[in-house]
Amino acid sequence: MKFIEIEWCSPEYQSALELRHEVLRAPLGLKLTAEELDGEHGQLHFGVAEGDELIATLVARPHSTNLVQLRQIAVHPNRQSSGVGRFLMEYCEANLRERGFQEITLNARLITLPFYEKLGYEAVGDVFKEITLEHQKMVKQIGGEST
């Protein structure tokens, strides 16, 4: 397994879009919309590759010099519960820390709360609905003071 940064509009980015659709949208009968993809050129894209295959991906949207939001976190269905997600998150957090970010936020589907809690994320606020599913905002300090 190899942690990679994915360049916007590259072949790897296209693979990431396909994986995100397969894991996050298709099961709900939804598609990624142009609105959702708008602005992704200014965001950070990361993944885990095994050989030529992208097996996990996420998008990091900076909100300030200290705060970044992780979104569209997807692991190939055949690789879920195998440590790939943890690998992606740990390397991503280290990369973001090196870039100077101090706090990470994400909106987790309720079914994934135990995964993020094991990684040190804490639930904040009330449960809310997003793309037809209940979510929980979660945060984690990765260095320095919170924003």
Automatic annotation (TrEMBL):
UniProt-listed CDD domains: NAT_SF (cd04301)
GO molecular function (one): N-acetyltransferase activity
Q: Which SUPFAM superfamilies match?
A: Acyl-CoA N-acyltransferases (Nat) (SSF55729)
Q: Which residues form the N-acetyltransferase domain?
A: 1-143
Which superkingdom does the taxonomy of this entry point to? Bacteria
Q: Look up the record and report any one GO term of the cellular component aspect.
A: cytoplasm
Kindly state which keywords UniProt assigns to this record, in alphabetical order.
Answer: Acyltransferase, Transferase
Acyltransferase found in the keyword field? yes
PROSITE patterns tied to this protein: GNAT (PS51186)
Task: Supply the Pfam families for this chain.
Answer: Acetyltransf_10 (PF13673)
Name assigned to this protein: Acetyltransferase
